[in-house]
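Lab channel / #folding
Pinned by the channel admin:
"Please post every new chain as: sequence first, then the structure tokens as a reply. Keep commentary short and put observations after the output so the thread stays searchable."

First post following the new format, from NK:
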Amino acid sequence: FLKHSTGSATVISSGSTLEGRITSPSTISVAGFVKGELNASEIVIEREGSVQGSIFAEHLIIIGNFEGEVSSNKITVASTGSVRGELSYKRVIIDDGAVLDVSFHKI
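Reply from TO:
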């Protein structure tokens, strides 16, 4: 799923918990738990990762768990992804097996 970016990634590692707001010009990778707001070019919620809150991204990739509100040009939900909330998007890709309890809003 990931494309190589010119900037360095911000990583929330497995076992870590963060509450607050994270903004990055490149990629945010979440393998731990985040409660709050994420804003980046690309955000990846890894298989063991979980996010509760708001996400603003060019591309959001959900392999783990997400609950909250998303505004993204492109949302990709992997077969292991679990999503609950409101998704505002331009493009969405959902793999077979993903668990969704969402409202979709095309932007």
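NK: Strands lie at 10-12, 17-30, 33-45, 50-62, 65-77, 82-94, 99-106.
TO: also worth noting, The first strand starts at residue 10 and ends at 12.
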